[in-house]
Amino acid sequence: MLPYKELANLDKIVHEPARLSILTALSACTLAEFLFLQELTGLTKGNLSSHLSKLEKANLIVIDKHFVRKKIPQTTIRITSEGKAAVDQHWKQLLSIHQSIRHHGANNENRSAPNPLSINQALT
User: Fold this and answer.
1) Which one, 15, 16, 37, 74, has the greatest CB density within 10 A?
2) Contact call for residues 5 and 102 (beta carbons, < 8 A)
3) Stated pTM of the model
4) d(Cα 26, Cα 41) in Å, to the nearest integer?
């Protein structure tokens, strides 16, 4: 399979840019507060909430909603072991695809499309 076609086989839940950003951030820490993730990712509250719901449904994160001092709501999010494995695997796949494309291109330099200027110069 050509490396370009492998891009279409990436996990869509993880690959979506906002969710990849969230998972990558969470993989670097034990847990994060909702407002911290919002600031880090630049997403709106509604957009972040929507992406977190999809990640939670896929069992990639766990969301904990509780109150601090009985009246201040706080939402914390942590990545699950499945989420950590999924994001790590995703980055490995992207790196592998990128390396394959670079290698494939390097091996086919002599077969690349001809330079239009050299064709025009040859014709004159």
Assistant:
1) 37
2) no
3) 0.78
4) 11
